[in-house]
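#onboarding

Welcome to the new folks! Below is a worked example of what a typical request in this channel looks like: someone posts a single protein sequence, and someone else replies with the predicted structure as tokens. Don't worry about understanding the tokens yet, we'll cover that in week two.

Example request:
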Amino acid sequence: MRYLSLISFSLAAACLSPAAQAQNCEGGAYMNPQLFRGEAAYQSAVAEQEMHAFIGRAGLPQAPLYAIKKVDDITASGRTPYCWVYTNQVTGLMSGYKLAVFNNEVVQPAVLAITTAGKAATDAGAVALKTLPPAEQKAVLDQLQRSKCFGTAAGVEAAIAKAEGLCGNVEDVAPQATVGQQGLIAKAVFAWEEQSWAGVVTREPAALGVSLKGLAGRSEKVHQARLVVVPTKATSVGFGLYLHASVPDAAAKKAVAAFQGLTAPSKPLAVAMDLGPQFSFVVPTAEQLEKMRAAIGLGK
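Example response:
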């Protein structure tokens, strides 16, 4: 009996061990930034390979590695939960996983508003809202709130624009390889009418660089429309690492240290992780988490 008791005690101790806890999840999930950019399939594959290798160095399970596009890909029932997820704020914060570390690089979302056709040069470049006279700024904002915009499904930029009510409504467009933001612009151009503006939700630098040249609309006058870039009030941050509750503390600490120790990534790894020149991985504070949630309309 004593022998059986010792066996029972040993089994109970094993069930409480970190190794056993880790078996409550498997592998990881990756939202590939290349998909949002509309890069070719082989470039997305390279990004996945880079992420796979880095996660291994960070001490987290490398396989199986699942590609995700939306929060349902994480929360769907009937499968073993992922141990980790590298993704943006929208899918990460809605997943129920814990944000362990994130890229604190500021991202400024904006709406590229395709406004009134007038005396603008054909396919003229976009202008920032702040450069317009106050009365024109107000007119643009008022009309934009009655207009249809297009944003990437599960994108942080679209979520913030929705939360702030910049557009009358924002239509979610699923990200597609080789299409990316250009697909959103094409949809907006086709939807535009003289009395019915259209907009694209994207990042501010990308919006300022947009040209409508070569895009077909229902009216050729769209090429004389003034393009105005309207930034959101709230900003966003980069991608982050989200961990399942069953990941042991020691494994979580090792992973966080690997991300924070990343100072000079190779170009392929930087692309795979959506890192800009000012990237910095930090552990979130309660205040930062609250701000992130509020920005995308999740509240407290």
